[in-house]
Amino acid sequence: MKEALTVLVTGGNRGIGLASAKLFADAGHRVAVTSRDPDVTDDRIFSVACDQTDSDAVDVAFAAIEAELGAVQVLVANAGITRDQLLLRMSDDDFTEVVDTNLNGAYRVARRAARPMLRARWGRLIFISSVVGLLGSAGQVNYAASKAGLIGMARSMARELGSRNITANVVAPGPVATEMLASLTEEQRTTITSQVPLGRVAQPHEIAEAIKFLASESAAYITGAVIPVDGGLGMGH
């Protein structure tokens, strides 16, 4: 990886995002995180409030990051929400809010990040999807649609931006030990874990390692790829 890159991790205040931000900081990079309510206390990480459903807020956040750390060279589009509900009970707002945050929000930050990357003729766009976007999940029509959409979006960006040495890839985690998983019942967690061939959930740092790899020079010839980090849950997809 190039020395001292400027890295932005959206949704970087907890879980996979925070683990990724800390891993990049450990490697000596300039790291910023965005979230709606930033509360990162690590003094190596520049934390900025940003609601990625608002294009103006995205522009303001990027301006603050560029002033503090320089142009974003690696974007990890990780921010996301859930509004789980069975299809016939799911409201329009439940569907729209998840898609607007997870998919449209990733589009907004990637579009903004791509401008300086194009000028520099180098960049890394890394989108955090989910095994749910490949397999589907009952009660998660909105979440699955948003995460599947990231794949088509990333692959289109890979074709559009590849000639400028900008890669666009997707990481598709399986179940991870985060607040989202902790909010489930013990029975639900046991059911999920039993479906994973490796018989356990991932730790956030295991997903972060794959993200860091895609940002590195070792991954310079990888673009438009979906990298599963799911303990074998989604194999064949």
List the helices and strands and how they pair.
Layout: E1 6-10, H1 15-26, E2 30-35, E3 45-49, H2 55-69, E4 74-77, H3 92-120, E5 123-128, H4 132-135, H5 141-161, E6 166-173, H6 179-182, H7 186-194, H8 204-215, E7 226-229
Parallel strand pairs: 1-2, 1-4, 2-3, 4-5, 5-6, 6-7
Please provide a written account of the structure:
This protein is α/β, with parallel strands linked by helices. It has a single domain, classed as Rossmann fold (3-Layer(aba) Sandwich), CATH 3.40.50. It is 45% helix and 16% strand. The chain contains eight helices and seven strands. It has a seven-stranded parallel beta sheet, with helices on both faces. Helix 1 links the parallel strand 1 and strand 2. The longest helix is centred in the middle third of the chain and has 29 residues. It starts with 5 loop residues before the first strand and ends in an 8-residue tail after the last strand. The model has no long low-confidence stretch (mean pLDDT 94).
Notable traits:
237 residues; Rossmann fold; 16% strand; 8 helices; seven-stranded parallel sheet
Question: What is the structure about, briefly put?
Answer:
The protein has a single domain (6-175, 205-227), classed as Rossmann fold (3-Layer(aba) Sandwich). The chain contains 8 helices and 7 strands.
